[in-house]
Amino acid sequence: MLQITYHGHSSVQLGTGEKSLIIDPFLRGNELAVTKPENIKTDVVLLTHAHMDHILDAEPIAKANNAKVVAIVELATYMSWKGLDTLGMNMGGTVDLDFAQAKMIQAFHTSGIVLEEEQRIMYAGLPAGYIINIGGKTILHAGDTSLFGDMKMIGDRHKIDVAFLPIGGHFTMGPEDALQAAEWFNAKLTIPVHYDTFPVIRQDAEKFVQQLASVGLEGRVMAPGDSFTL
User: Fold this and answer.
1) What angle do CA 129, 39, 172 make, to 5 degrees?
2) β-pair type (94-96, 137-141)
3) pLDDT tens-place string over residues 2-15
């Protein structure tokens, strides 16, 4: 049995009852979020890339829970400098987290840490997504990405139970491209993420789910704080 909780933006928590992991925690900076970082209980923090709206709450959550932070090696190294327990990996690799296995897959985006006072941007490795085997299910979190053809190969090679896909546009693929991605991933359930947090990424998630249904795919809209058991 797997509990899936959506914390808003791209933040998803997957739990098996005794153990859980959270992906891209961004709560303090999201006006739509209903959960505070100090309320998160987790064993592992997975990061897809280094942009602020994906890593903002990684440090406080990891420290409060003595949680391991998993990320591409450059971002993991940066997080280790903050005194966190990190596990660096790279594209195509899989890490065993005891209660889950996470495979890093490609995403087409950028990844860097903006150092405002220095007016400098620090390289933080490639952006990524994850395929996570947990609680007997296979979960895909696409990360921030545009549409790319190898999504079909990923869908052909993995039987995906749930896919989390960005639909916001502007910074990631929008609904039209996300619909094509959903067809290629061919998950049993597709859940839209990375929308509505900022004005520039406002989208109609219900309409996207209707479009999924029109091509024979099941979709679900989750509000921040929503959970369900798979």
Assistant:
1) 25
2) unpaired
3) 999 999 999 999 99
